[in-house]
């Protein structure tokens, strides 16, 4: 099934090892404007490759990459390896330290119809185009996407646990997460990783836009290459793989903010009552608590007023989107169908790139943004479970965009993966 390969990663020179915390950055789609501007002040920070700025950002990133290579700011590891990546973290209200265990490798950029790599949510077209251009100009995967494989026997974990005892990097990131990177060079161990994944499907957990970029580039190069063999570097993509059976996988909710209602508030509230039981609430900071464990329930904060919304069960069968039942059952499908399409008149295809719609993981930030007038409406939702993700992936359908927030996010800057011919570890070389 899934073909993976070790890689010879490009990494910051060892003389910068002690500064690695100042060289890493959040992923392109979660870095805030304030974080971004602060990171740009360091001329060696990885954000200059992952979120380049200027009139020609992708071309500028390619020039900078070449400069860093020539000056020895980044160097390519001499041996191919599987890069073990552990993230240690805590969640509010819990004393437990969680650890998400995984490894970084190259993986074939499978087309969706091949049913090897399964997606679970829609992408936002403008964000995909940005990633395609960056990949075409730099031929570099600047950060790994996140995939899930299923291994109930945890065959690979002993090798990862052994490797992580001698880390390359150990640092605390912008999330307060302790990130640790190590590498496995042992040929027999690498072969076990390759064989284990060869029997697996992979669920794409995070990084749909970056994966779509790699997939687009692979299709383009296949069309241009009459001697295509399926083993060229452009066929591959950088991915962080974790075991879906591990207890420490966490998915956090992603809430919705609407800058401005396309109708008067009074009309909106009246129309909501056609589909929902609408209950006013005193304290907006309890909206996330009053919906916990309740299907098709949402918190709503509208211009200083808090409400709990609960879909009337009898209207649920009226969802006429051509989705399997696994998708229709999701809270976010209910939200996007009844609130955005039926009530607000923002149809499904428009929703993917609707200018007034934004996404926020932090619950209190949602309340704060409405209070500050940055948004008129906040819709608070429950998290999606791992089982729901699996069911949707296996159904062949996708969730609404920004349905899941796998926590913590991987960081950018620990390593980079080149798809240049002379910098790539091929399948033949990996098996030597």
Automatic annotation (TrEMBL):
Designated name of the protein: DUF1015 domain-containing protein
Lineage: Bacteria, Pseudomonadati, Bacteroidota, Cytophagia, Cytophagales
Source organism, top-level taxon: Bacteria
Organism: Pontibacter mangrovi
InterPro entries: UCP033563
One of the Pfam families matching this protein, by short name: DUF1015
């Amino acid at each position: 099934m899934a073909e993976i390969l070790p890689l010879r990663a490009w990494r910051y020179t060892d003389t910068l090892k002690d500064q690695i915390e100042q060289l890493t950055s959040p992923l392109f789609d979660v870095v805030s404007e304030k974080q971004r501007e602060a990171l740009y002040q360091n001329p060696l920070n990885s954000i200059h490759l992952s979120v380049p700025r200027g009139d020609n950002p992708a071309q500028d990133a390619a020039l900078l990459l070449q400069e860093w290579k020539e000056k020895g700011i980044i160097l390519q590891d001499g041996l191919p390896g599987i890069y073990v990546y552990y993230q240690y973290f805590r969640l509010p209200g819990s004393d437990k330290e969680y650890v998400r265990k995984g490894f970084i490798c190259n993986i074939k950029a499978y087309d969706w119809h091949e049913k090897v790599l399964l997606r679970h949510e829609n992408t936002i077209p403008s964000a995909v185009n940005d990633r395609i251009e960056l990949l075409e100009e730099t031929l570099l995967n600047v950060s790994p996407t996140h995939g899930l494989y299923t291994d109930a026997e945890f065959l690979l974990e002993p090798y990862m646990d052994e490797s992580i005892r001698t880390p390359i990097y150990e640092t605390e990131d912008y999330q307060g997460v302790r990130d640790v990177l190590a590498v496995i060079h042992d040929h027999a161990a690498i072969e076990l990783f390759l064989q284990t994944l060869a029997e697996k499907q992979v669920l794409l957990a995070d990084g749909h836009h970056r994966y779509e970029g790699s997939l687009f580039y692979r299709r383009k190069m296949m069309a241009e290459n009459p001697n295509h063999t399926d083993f060229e570097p452009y066929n591959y993509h950088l991915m962080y793989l974790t075991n879906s059976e591990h207890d420490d996988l966490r998915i956090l909710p992603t809430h919705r903010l609407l800058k401005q209602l396309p109708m008067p508030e009074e009309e909106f509230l009246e129309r909501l009552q056609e589909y929902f039981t609408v209950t006013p609430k005193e304290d907006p900071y309890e909206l996330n608590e009053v919906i916990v464990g309740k299907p098709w329930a949402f918190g709503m904060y509208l211009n200083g007023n808090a409400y709990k919304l609960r879909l009337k069960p009898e209207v649920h069968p009226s969802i006429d989107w051509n989705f399997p039942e696994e998708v229709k059952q999701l809270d976010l499908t209910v939200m996007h169908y009844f609130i955005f399409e039926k009530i607000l008149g923002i149809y499904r295809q428009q929703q993917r790139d609707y200018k007034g719609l934004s996404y926020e993981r932090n619950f209190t930030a949602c309340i704060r943004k409405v209070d500050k007038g940055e948004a008129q409406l906040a819709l608070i939702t429950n998290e999606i479970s791992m089982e729901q993700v699996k069911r949707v992936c296996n159904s062949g359908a996708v969730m609404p965009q920004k349905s899941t927030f796998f926590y913590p996010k991987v960081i950018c800057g620990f390593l980079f993966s080149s798809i240049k011919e002379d910098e790539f570890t091929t399948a033949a070389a990996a098996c030597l």
